[in-house]
Amino acid sequence: MVVALVGNPNTGKTALFNALTGFHRHVANYPGVTVELARGPIRDANAPIELLDLPGTYSLAAQSPDEAIVCHTLCGHAADTAPAAIIATIDASNPARNLYLVSQLLELGLPVVIALNMIDIARRRGLEVDAARLSARLGVPVVPVVAVEPATVTPLVRALEQTLAAPTPPTVRVPLPPPLAEATRALTAAVPDLRPGEAVRLLVDRAGWLRRAFGPRDTLDAALAAARQRLDRDGIDAATAEVRARYAWVDGVLDGVVRRTPPVGDTWTARIDRVVTHPVGGGVTLLCVLYAVFYAIYQGAAPLMAGLEQLFGWAGAGVAAVVPPGPLQSLLVDGVIAGVGAVVGFLPQILILFLALALLEDCGYMARAAFMVDRLMRPLGLSGRAFIPLLSSFACAVPAILGTRAIADRRERFITILIAPFMSCSARLPVYVLLIGAFVPPTAYLGGWLRLDALVMIAMYLVGVIVAIPVAFLLRHSAFRGPPAGFLLEMPTYKRPRARAVAQRVLHAGRSFLVRAGTIILLVNVVVWALGYFPRSAATQAAVDAQRLAQGWDDATYEAELAGAYLRDSYLGRLGRGLEPVLAPLHWDWRIGIGVLASFPAREVIVATLSTICNLGPEDDAQSASLRARLAELKWDGTDRPLFTLPVALSLMVFFALCAQCVSTLVVIGRETGSWAWPVVSFVGMTTIAYAGAWATGAAARAAGG
Amino acid sequence: MSLARVPSATRCRIVAVRGGHRIPYRLMEMGLVEGAEVEVVRRAPLGDPLQVRLGDYELALRESDAELIDVTEI
Ligand SMILES: Nc1nc2c(ncn2[C@@H]2O[C@H](COP(=O)(O)OP(=O)(O)OP(=O)(O)O)[C@@H](O)[C@H]2O)c(=O)[nH]1
Ligand SMILES: [Mg+2]
Questions:
Q1: pLDDT tens column, A408-455
Q2: Total domain count for chain A?
Q3: pLDDT digits (tens, 9 = 90+) for A505-551
Q4: Could you identify the atom of ligand 1 that is nearest to the CA of residue A497?
Q5: Most buried residue, A20, A125, A127, A374, by most Cβ within 10 Å?
Q6: How many domains does chain B have?
Q7: A243 to chain B: nearest residue by CA?
Q8: ipTM value > 0.85
Q9: Residue A177, in any domain of the structure
Q10: Which residues of A681-704 are buried (b: 16+ CB within 10 A; e: fewer)?
């Protein structure tokens, strides 16, 4: 039996879901965070009850895909999840707007149980909702809970069980204006299989979100058109008439149910807002927050990273001691351990970034950031709403693109989706960290407050932003011309971030990164290793043997030359050398080329590939030298000229900042835009921009004498 | 008087919501309907959007939307 959890955004549905199921989910204090349906069984129920966590919505009149999901599911159009009952969460500190949605839910013919949530917050703000009275007026159970304290939800489970044992749909109805009521009756009579309450939803559904669920149906279309025509003739705008009728009803229901004792002085939220949205203080706060996040990522993670690197070094040495030299040893040490180790080493940074984002979202600051930057986003045809997906895109573009479902305006949503991958996601971070660590000196300025490596890191994050601006502008004036998108955003009260919810989210992010590192990246890495190890022909060895005789090399030189020759003649080497004409303007050699090729599935693979390439290539004491040191020692083939100079490192970083080397992102773009043309456009466009950017960066750095 | 012209920290009541399509509808669903109490809390650092207290909660909306809402002081 499925029970749906429905409510306004940010009313604690996910927190309640976690409390009821003991199954933790992403919980965040920003309207519209749940974008995919999560399910789980209720923990202490006597009968098996499956709970469905729906995205937050202010109304069943869908205006975005997110809201369409809710209406579809509740009307039973999503076949396997047709719910048997609804738990409506309402925020006790804001009863009126929450009851607006409830008034729509009560008409769907499904039993409803109301979870009156956040009574702790309401009480602190001097609001007391009389649950018993509200329950009597609505004719459904109303159970006060504090979703973040799981002990408080037991009465809700009992109430739900009672309701499910004797399911009775609520009978209260909002009195609609007579012409509207008449139109819904006529529609219901003409299309008998409409669910209760669905007629009015269809009538006001101008964009056709709900209509789509019925497939082609001539009787339905005819009845709808007739009903709308009648309303037009009576001069009734169905949508606004419905809203007015419902809010009038809500006023009546709440009369005598809510007791307000206005708190003395300002609330904490008002005090904090005065600082963080202040004309000067607000901008300063925003910049400080952003700098602090990136500083923490870069500084805080260093010791952990060094530890992990060492751990994998030992593992490699341990395996090398046990497994005899040959293809198997090389596969394990150079392919598997070195590759995964190189990627896992960046876990600390990713965890810190997700920790920061989770804290900012959960406490409520993100909505303030959106409020402040809305004006800035407007010339791009975007709104402050796009800021949150774009900001989370700094962690990962995939959840960010999913998060754009909360953007109602289609054009704004598509532009946001297409520029989100320009934001420097956590997968680029390993590339930056590796190359900055190896080639940018940690020169300190202003007594250690500013450091060159940190500044270059910030510059890398800015590159994507700076390029995204003209791209968004271009899209706005070509494929997505049209009226500007609006901006309407609830400003939630500040809440203390919940340690468990935040920890859960960070761990989830870490785990999914590791799973990626463990599967797709490992796979690619082994393939790259194989391409770089084979064919290992006798001809190559014979040629090097002949040179050895001619030049009188000692053993060490011979070994190094042989390894280099094997790599050059490998399949991967051939592929990379085939690319050299394209790479020459960038001053990249074939080894960088194969790194770029091999990182198509995911950007962070470049690090693993570079480490494989270094291990395969000539080694001097390579076991102990770190990847950074070994990179710095790479030379152009047959010369003493170092391959990686500062300009090359910078251009490679810029390339990775702008390219679309991430299969998951491309797949999600395809899914969310409903067309495979957009991922192709995105890949081709971004790769071209990345190439141009890399070339320009390298050229500029060389001109500056770097 | 339109909500966009009201100085901050003035308590007002909505008397009319003007305009035809979509956007005012969404504004109304958020609770900006005739009879509701509103108060402009502040403007964003760049002058727009507005932060508005509406009944028991706060909401950010653009000046162009606030133009559509007529209020009287209370
Ligand atoms: N103090 C307090 N905080 C709560 C309560 N319920 C939820 N919260 C907090 O409110 C915020 C929002 O909770 P979520 O569970 O993410 O809300 P949601 O309804 O799932 O939000 P969307 O999925 O974005 O629609 C989180 O910071 C929670 O920790 C409560 O009863 N009391
Ligand atoms: Mg949620």
A1: 788 899 999 999 999 988 778 888 888 888 888 877 887 777 788 888
A2: 1
A3: 788 777 766 776 566 667 767 787 788 788 888 888 888 788 888 87
A4: 27
A5: A20
A6: 1
A7: B29
A8: yes
A9: no
A10: bbbebbbebbbebbbebbeebbee
